[in-house]
Amino acid sequence: MRINKYISESRLYPRRETDRLIAAGRITINGQPCTKGAQVEPGDLVAVDGEPVTTVTKKLVYLALNKPAGITCTSSREVEGNIIDFVGYPSRIFAVGRLDKYSEGLILLTNDGSIVNRMMRAENGHEKEYSVAVDKPVTDEFLHRMAAGVDILGTRTLPCETGRLSETEFRIVLKQGLNLQIRRMCKELGYRVLRLERIRIMNIVLSGLERGQWRHLEQAELAGLFALFNHSED
């Protein structure tokens, strides 16, 4: 079994984090630093920072956080204001996806590497809904152009759903996640984003969670989340 798959099935780390650890020489097989494509054979001892890794089932953690602006979605503890230190959970967790430093709202965190991998696959088209405040009135033309697709980063964004919330606020539902996508789309159309808040990820909603607070996902939410995963992967 490839080392990346072995680590993924341990549910300790998502694949991107595994690649980073391998590149840093922190994952070993039988005491020797391994490469990205290394094979794990029966009886091999795999370790991260000297701690053995097993595929024994552990207690899985799924959290929803209302991220404040100013917090960076990285597991690198050397980054000031990183999301892991902000949450302060007693065991290792990872953010699922990203919100840029100056955006706020819903983000999921977990120790289940497999869910991170599944959620990060762009082809699954998972819905993410945002509330956006801009610097001038939201017009019908603006909403139509946002929904139809905007040329940014050398490509045209996928068609999406939009709606007016107030004179200078609108909602948008995306099924892709280009870098700073909403901010870039607005800028291309002559608008500047003043506040960007994610209010929903698939079936998980932000309502009832104060800024800076987190909670464990409920069983019904998890069941709905996994059902959506399974449907998108059929």
Automatic annotation (TrEMBL):
GO terms for molecular function: RNA binding; rRNA pseudouridine synthase activity. Pfam families: PseudoU_synth_2, S4. Keywords: Isomerase, RNA-binding. Residues 1-61 form the RNA-binding S4 domain. GO terms for biological process: enzyme-directed rRNA pseudouridine synthesis. SMART domains: S4. Belongs to the pseudouridine synthase RsuA family. This is Pseudouridine synthase. It comes from Paenibacillus riograndensis.
